[in-house]
Input
Amino acid sequence: MQSSDFETYFKHFPYLNERFTGVFSIDNVPKKLNYRHFCIVNTDVAKENGSHWFTILRHNKLSYEIFDSLSINSEKENNLKHFLKFNSDFLEVNDSQFQLNDSISCGKFCIFYIIKRMYNLDLDYCDFLCETFDSDLSKNETLVNNFCSDILDDRYWFIIMEEIDSSAIVQKLTIEPDTLRLQVPFAMSLSGPSQSIQYNIFSH
Output
C-alpha cells in the first residue's frame, strides 16, 4: 500500500479524517499527537523504500497506543522508543500477531484497527484486541481485506431507521465515536416511551 492510499479510506469517515495526522517514516514521526488523533508510520527511515506499516493513536491525554499487525516484542519496542519523540513512558503495544507472515496487508490492518478502535475507545486496549481479532490469522486476513473493500463501496455509510409502524427512512450520516459504537455489520436498538428505532448498515 502506498502512503497516499490511506486517505482514500479515511475520507469515507469525515470524523476520522479530521483526526488523521498523516503518514510518516519512522524517523519523521511528529513530536506529539493531539488527543484522539492518529498517524500511520512506516518502519523504514525516509531514505529507504518502505517495508511495513503500523499506526500510533493518542488514545487519551496520558497514553499512546501502537498497533503493529505483526506484533511488537521488546526488541521492536526499544527500537521504536529510539525514534519516537513523545513521552514513551505511556506506550501501550500489542505483543500478539494478527497478520500472516507472508501477507502484504499491513496497511489494511492499520485502516481496520483505526476505524474499529476510534469507535470503541471505551474498551481497554487488550480487551479491544481480543474482541476484534481472531487467533486464526487467516480469518483476520479475510476480515480485514473484506472490510477495506466494503469501505471503498460505501457499504458502511447508509443506515435504515425503522420505527414501530414499519415506516422507514434512509439517511447518510456522519457517525461520531462519542455517540455511536461502530460494529460491522451492526444493529442497535434505541427504545423510548413511544418508539423503537433499529439501525442497520446495509449494502446498496
